[in-house]
Amino acid sequence: MKLGKVGLILAMAAAAALMVVTADAGPEIRIGSKKFTESVILAELASKLCASAGANAVHLPGLGGTRFLWDALLAHEIDVYPEYTATLREEILAGERIAGEGGLETALAKRGLRMSRPLGFSDSYALGMMPQKAQQLGITKISGLAPHHSLRFGLSDEFINRADGWPALRAAYQLNPADVRGLDHDIAYKGLAEGAIDVIDLYTTDAEIGYYGIQILDDDRHVFPANEAVLIYRAELEQRAPKAIQAMRRLEGRIGNAAMRSMNSAVKIGRRSETDVAAWFVAANFGVAEAGSTDTLAGRLLRRTIEHLRLTLLSLAAAIVIALPLGIIAARRPKAGQAILALVSILQTIPSLALLVFMIPILGIGAPPAIAALFLYSLLPIVRNTASGLSSIPLSIRNSAIALGLSPVRCLQLVELPMASPAILAGIKTAAVINVGTATLGALIGAGGYGQPIFTGVRLDNFGLILEGAVPAALLALAVQGLFELAEHYLVPRGLRLRRETPP
Amino acid sequence: MIRLDNVSKSYGGSIIIDSVSLTIPGNQTTVLIGPSGAGKSTVLALIDGIEAPDSGTIMIGCDPLTPGSAPQLRRRMGYVIQDGGLFPHLTSRQNIDLMAKEAGWPLLQRRARVDELCALTRFPANALERYPAELSGGQRQRVSLMRALMLDPPILLMDEPLGALDPVIRAELQDDLKAIFSRLTKTVVLVTHDISEAAFLGSTIILMRAGHIVQQGHFRDLVARPGDPFVSQFIHAQLRRLTTMNEGAMQSFLRHR
Ligand SMILES: Nc1ncnc2c1ncn2[C@@H]1O[C@H](COP(=O)(O)OP(=O)(O)OP(=O)(O)O)[C@@H](O)[C@H]1O
Ligand SMILES: [Mg+2]
After folding, report:
1. Which of A199, A389, A412, A479 is most buried, with most CB under 10 Å away?
2. Tens digit of pLDDT for each residue in A282-309?
3. What is the pLDDT of residues A32-48, one digit of tens each?
4. Which domain holds residue B29?
5. What is the B41 CA–ligand 2 centroid distance (Å)?
């Protein structure tokens, strides 16, 4: 039967997609990074060094916030990610009141984790001014701000609200400015450069510091704790991939504030990819050359297309296998049908991002939770169209099939499914097209695909990168649409098309 | 022979067939006639086992019809449903030989049988590869009939096979059907609204009204010895108009000569 053929083709394509992605050698090391440039660069550096030691390093870039990566590390879903000592001490392990570096290491060891030595730079809060203004007022240190009540402060909301941020700073330096406003961090930079505000908060490695030539004010009363970058990783990695760990730890003490700032700036302002910048850094500092890099546009596109197709095909194939029988049951038994349709409709109302996140505790991160979420999304259109296609078959047709002597199963195969095939195909098409679009969100949980450049581009405000994902995604959706229209032509029995063309 | 004993059927509380008993003789044509909604189609559906009676028994030959035996007994019956019930996604030929294919008939045997039926029903062979949507109303009726006859069942149930056809085709098909019936000697149960068609095709006529049998007999009996005022009313309602109109037409025909 023809619909069976479609299922078979889809299943084979899905299996092929699965195989392509699983071939590689060496111990696998999964490296995560947070959703900002610096973290992505650090993870990329670590991944390049691991790869140079023969490991199969997989970087899952921009996965989420601190909590997300910490949980992923504890859950064995990733093996390594870049973190900051103050974040560890005051945010993640805040309940344990850890003093000193030794304390931190013990606390991590209790959880089966290890920490590298500091990588060199400290990513702390600081205050900055434009140099002209600072010189004019003779300010070089934060304590120098106190007498100037008329200075306009533009501070990020997070900084204003954190106990160790503005409140602590204000108390320690007796600052009492007349004008303090909460601003978006990026806007604050622009405002400072244009002279609309005088003082902003910043991170010491922000790319914009160099770009705008901002002067950093010395924290002379040491209010801001040092916040040194480290790599934290699962302890068993030292047995499983000792060489890779050794290679990765070559980063210790090698990245100074200036180096980090210039790498951030190369990405955020110079519009280069994190991969590029990291490759340049390891080549310059450790003599590690890119081995078999696929980072040409064609290579990236191919890799992402395979990832994207794998997500959509596997989820769609699974959805067809499950949704067709559900649709048939729904058409046969109205009571059960209502329950089934209600259930798959509820699934549809869950926001896609939330559904992806729900999947993580069950399936971890990467492709499996994304495929599961896409699968759940694809159910409704297929179940609904199958059920409505079957129930719209006139009673006289069903009766004459029974009267002819067809068994219920043969009646379904020979008469009902072919007659419902236009509706069923339309349902599968809807599911596939939605699937191609929604699969871009998979990049948020490390599933790769076209969403990867889109979200990196959004993070970096890089329109070119966004297009690199959005254009192929749109083309793929169009191709899927076209493919199904072709399939419709070939699969829908001609007698049915006739009937639709010449209304009775 | 088909027998119904005290058969009742109701849908959603309203009684559609009310304790009907009747015997349909074998090897001849019986016509079920009556006003719309009388329950004619329901009687056919009951005989074919598509619907199960609420009470009463139905015998097909010597075998009682039950939900269990229906699939088996159905093989003895060809059923042309009220609006044909052709499968729109299959060509005429595929519609006709679907069951033979299911039964495992070889291709050549199927072809031969379809050719035979085309000749019998005077269906143009070149229309066999067309879909139902590409056929005229009369051709569709012929395909339905061929499909019902394909496996040569001894019983043929036909629900208004000539409904919705223009008078010329209808008369032509009536002639064809009569010829086919007399050639095949099957037990035929045919439903119609039209008393002249009933008289022309049926040896026995069963007049139904509101789920009851009003009278069963030859056309002559119904005209000569109506068992109920409704019988003459029903027969004359159709015949009288025809005669008066015929008279008028005849007179004007004569005048214009
Ligand atoms: N599946 C059903 N559900 C509910 N009511 C039904 C069903 N089938 C038939 N009926 C009702 O039963 C009555 C008899 O229907 P039936 O089709 O047997 O009439 P009929 O004599 O064949 O009429 P017609 O000449 O118009 O075809 C009608 O009132 C019809 O509405
Ligand atoms: Mg009827």
Report:
1. A199
2. 888 887 775 545 467 788 888 889 999 9
3. 999 888 999 999 999 99
4. 2-256
5. 4
Of B77, B85, B132, the CB nearest to A399: B85
Tokens of A279: 């490759």
Residue in chain A nearest B80 by alpha carbon: A400
Q: Are A363 and A300 in contact (CB under 8 A)?
A: no
Q: Which ligand is nearest to the CA of B13?
A: 1
Please give the model's pTM, rounded to 2 decimal places.
0.70
Query: Chain B contact for A497, CB < 8 A?
Result: no
Q: Which residues line ligand 1 (CB under 6 A)?
A: B 11-12, 16, 36-42, 82, 193
pLDDT of residue A3: 53
Grade residue A20 by pLDDT with cuts at 50, 70 and 90. very low
Q: What is the ipTM of this complex?
A: 0.84
* CB A355, CB A377: distance < 8 Å: yes
Asked if A73 contacts A32 with a C-beta cutoff of 8 angstroms, the reply is yes
The answer to whether B181 and B29 have CB atoms below 8 angstroms apart is: yes
Cβ atoms of residues A225 and A90 within 8 Å: yes
pLDDT tens string A354-391: 888 788 778 877 788 899 999 999 999 999 999 999 99
CA of B144 from ligand 2 middle (Å) equals 16
CATH number, position B176:
3.40.50.300
CA distances for A500 relative to A1, A239, A384, B138, B139, angstroms? 22, 67, 21, 21, 20
Provide the β-strand partners of residue B192.
B33
Name the DSSP letter for residue A94: G
pLDDT in tens, B88-140: 999 999 999 999 999 999 999 999 999 988 988 889 999 999 999 899 888 89
Which residue among B33, B40, B81, B189 is best mutated to probe the pocket of ligand 1, counting the most ligand atoms within 8 A of its Cβ?
B40
**pLDDT higher than 50, residue A503:** no
Domains of chain A and any CATH numbers: 22-121+227-286 (3.40.190.10), 125-216 (3.40.190.120), 297-501 (1.10.3720.10)
Task: Compare CB distances from B85 to A396, A414, A495 and report the shortest one's residue.
Answer: A396
Number of domains chain B is built from: 1
Cα gap B82→B105, rounded to integer Å: 28
* Three-point CA angle B43, B5, B41, nearest 5°: 0
Residue type, A400: S
Tell me the per-residue pLDDT of A219-260, one tens digit each, with 9 for 90 and over.
Answer: 888 888 888 999 999 999 999 999 999 999 999 999 988 889
Fill in the amino acid letter for A470: A
The bridge status of strand A125-129 relative to strand A215-217 is: antiparallel
Return the pLDDT at A1: 47
Report which residue type is found at B61.
G
SS3 for A194-258, per residue?
HCCCCEEEEECCCHHHHHHCCEEEECCCCCCCCCEEEEEEECCHHHHCHHHHHHHHHHCCCECHH
Q: Please count the residue pairs, one from chain A and one from chain B, whose beta carbons lie less than 8 angstroms apart.
A: 71
